[in-house]
Amino acid sequence: MLVSIDQSCHPMPLFVEVALPVPMRQAFSYKVPDSISTLPKKGMRVKVPFGRQQLIGLVTGISDTCNLAPQQIKSIFELLDDEPLLPDSLYKLTAWAARYYFCSLGQMLSQAIPVALRKGAEISSNTTTFWHLTQSGRSASLDTLKRAPAQKKVMEHLLKGELTQDEISSLALSKSALKALNERAWITQDERVNSIDLSWREKLELDEDPLTLNPEQAIAVATLNQQTGYHCTLLEGITGSGKTEVYLALLESVLSKGKQALILVPEIGLTPQTISRFKSRFKVQVAVIHSGLTDNQRLAAWQQAKTGEAAIIIGTRSALFTPMAFPGVIILDEEHDSSFKQQEGVGYHARDLAVMRGHLEKIPVLLGTATPSLESLQNALSGRYKHLELGQRAGNAEKVRQGIIDISNQPLNTGLSHALLNEMRIHLDAGNQVLLFLNRRGFAPALLCHECGHLHECDRCDAFFTVHQSLGEIRCHHCGNHYAIPKQCHNCGSTMLMGQGVGTEQLANILEKEFPKYPVVRIDRDTTSRKGALEAHLNAIHKGEYKILVGTQMLAKGHHFPDVTLVGLLDVDGALFSADFRAPERFGQLYTQVSGRAGRARKPGTVLMQTHQADNPVLRELMHKGYGEFARGQLNERKQALLPPAWHMLLIRAEAHQALDADNFLSQVAELLPQNEESEVIGPMPAPMDKKAGKYRRHLIFQTKSRNQLQHAFEHALPQIESLPLAKRCRWSLDRDPQDLL
Ligand code: ADP
Ligand code: ZN
Ligand code: ZN
């Protein structure tokens, strides 16, 4: 719908500033040609020429002057919207995020907008045009239209009732006939605002009765219900303590005030049970935004949230940017989960942006988890966040038995100790399920020559090939490079090649032989890549079709397996010893999460860890004191080491075909950054995997005592960094608050 504007009020020429999805940290100016009569507004999409391409960007400013030379300025092709796409709060959020993550506003905005809109899809307008007869049309005689059959046809249809513009088109009624009848004043049109069902705001209906809250839950809910405006709360509750029930109680009071709730979860496919609990409690529309949707379905869900039709919006990381007509609360479940941090492109953290969004929208934010990230824990302990704790399991679930199996000098059967095999047999024979974690997929993590000891290494990366026996291939998990399993050693020509180490594929094979009566299922990225495969596996597990579950970290997230009574962690040593300073924190979270999977339904659970490090203090502390104390200890260690969250970190990655280019570039960057008591530059140094896909990778770390110091120092250096000649010879990227140092 085009709105014509009075030229005298808007003196031409008119110029717009546009944010485009390109890395350049600037807005681009364009002229609005006379052929476009709608007045552009901040936040509308425009299609513009950019070099040889056409790009879609968002208007960020309007002015009647432009300091580009007239021959330099290009015109926009098209204005795609007649109202701004996002509410003001979300512009403020993206602008803040672009500055914080040192990316362009256009890049940040394109994270915030559904793909369909980025590609130029039309937003269905919220009004509909109706055609109907006028008074004189109703009393007119159709005989006078004998010579005008098209007009007669229109009149015959409209005599039966009014028609929308879409119906007119699908009946293929003539446009000129409509025009003629309109001029005769026999028919007329009007625009009506579409009715959006917002009845849930008037009266909230429940589909099931809430559980009676236990005292801890009741205190948490009462505290949350007292909050008005922005508050951030960390809900630290052990697995099974009834956090989801607290969310539901909070939702009830938010929804009954006519406000919407946005719920972010790490991965939709992995948490079907949680989602169905939200869906079955309230008689409201729930928009679930996940990666299985088509672009158009995603857009439809986005619009339901934007209009307020959907009372509850559930989604993963990117759903953070979903607009709400009546924002009420933001809840992040499993707030510690690293999938909330985007790893590719703009490395934003949905948890941190959720807190900022809460600020901007003046609504509360609730972060729930059994194993808080050290960042959130620090904020809770320092009083920036409210801290609520749930320390008891809500149902009658029993406490978990924990144990360490010392495998130093023990014979292992394909990575399994006798002690673990025996324990498995006891649980399986009792009719229960057993879950084994091994964070290495494939058959074997390396291919070894038995004669010369050569380990076959990817020719493009600093990494060993993983053997995938079922595929008959060796594969590099870092660049995708793959070959048929060689028959001879690349080094000495020997044919005595064997897998070194154990992956999930081999583990599942050996378990099938060891326990022929008990069906084995393997859950990793290789067995769940087909759409729907994960759901099918999970269903079969719940039906008890499998007794032994072998999986990577994927299996640790959010599942409830009531019949699993034994959980075994096989690769504890590998998880503890990693180059990443977050390794102990991550292990603590994994261990605690999987322990929570054992014995939930009134069956006592057991968790066993196989390790060569039976006396490792991290393991001991976790087992004897639990995650809460362990995490507080870790936080102190980070403070002493000046690591996040005590200090603030920016990781600058550079990669190049010549290692020297990346090294020199980062050395020059280091020169541009301040080094003093409150800010530190570490590197350049090789990345933990220093060659990947044929390129050499180098890291530089910039750390400061305060967030603002980092912001100001780096903002100051950035233009100089960008103009370094080597900046063009390397691929480089910035990762603020990096979660993964690989
Ligand atoms: P969490 O999200 O903390 O892991 P859940 O909310 O899933 O915990 O609760 C664990 C189990 O306890 C669920 O089966 C839930 O139905 C049950 N539960 C939670 N709160 C209560 C309660 N107040 N009374 C009885 N059962 C409860
Ligand atoms: Zn060899
Ligand atoms: Zn590789």
What order do the helices and strands come in, and which of them pair?
Elements: E1 14-19, E2 28-32, E3 45-50, E4 53-63, E5 78-79, H1 88-100, H2 105-112, H3 115-118, E6 127-133, H4 135-139, H5 149-160, E7 163-164, H6 165-170, H7 175-183, E8 187-193, H8 199-202, H9 215-226, E9 232-237, H10 243-256, E10 260-264, H11 272-281, E11 285-289, H12 295-307, E12 310-315, E13 327-333, H13 350-361, E14 365-369, H14 374-381, E15 386-390, E16 401-406, H15 418-429, E17 433-437, E18 446-449, E19 466-468, E20 473-475, E21 482-484, E22 497-500, H16 504-514, E23 520-523, H17 533-542, E24 548-551, E25 564-569, H18 572-576, H19 583-597, E26 606-611, H20 617-640, E27 648-656, H21 659-671, E28 679-692, E29 695-704, H22 707-722, E30 731-736
Parallel strand pairs: 9-14, 9-15, 10-12, 10-13, 11-12, 13-14, 16-26, 17-24, 17-25, 23-24, 25-26
Antiparallel strand pairs: 1-2, 1-4, 3-4, 3-5, 6-7, 6-8, 18-22, 19-20, 20-21, 27-29, 27-30, 28-29
Structure, explained:
The protein is α/β, with parallel strands linked by helices and about 750 residues long. It folds into six domains: about 15-120, GIY-YIG endonuclease (3-Layer(aba) Sandwich), CATH 3.40.1440.60; about 130-195; about 200-390, P-loop containing nucleotide triphosphate hydrolases (Rossmann fold), CATH 3.40.50.300; about 400-440 and about 500-640, P-loop containing nucleotide triphosphate hydrolases (Rossmann fold, 3-Layer(aba) Sandwich); about 445-500, no CATH class; about 650-735, Alpha-Beta Plaits, CATH 3.30.70. Helix content is about 30%, strand content about 25%. The strands form seven sheets. A seven-stranded parallel beta sheet has the order 11-12-10-13-14-9-15, with helices on both faces. Residues about 1-10 have low confidence and may be disordered. Bound molecules: adenosine-5'-diphosphate and zinc ion (ZN) (2 copies). The site of one zinc ion (ZN) has 8 residues, from loops. Belongs to the helicase family. PriA subfamily. InterPro entries: DEAD/DEAH_box_helicase_dom, Helicase_ATP-bd, Helicase_C-like, P-loop_NTPase, PriA, PriA_3primeBD, PriA_3primeBD_sf, PriA_C. It is an enzyme of class 5 (isomerase).
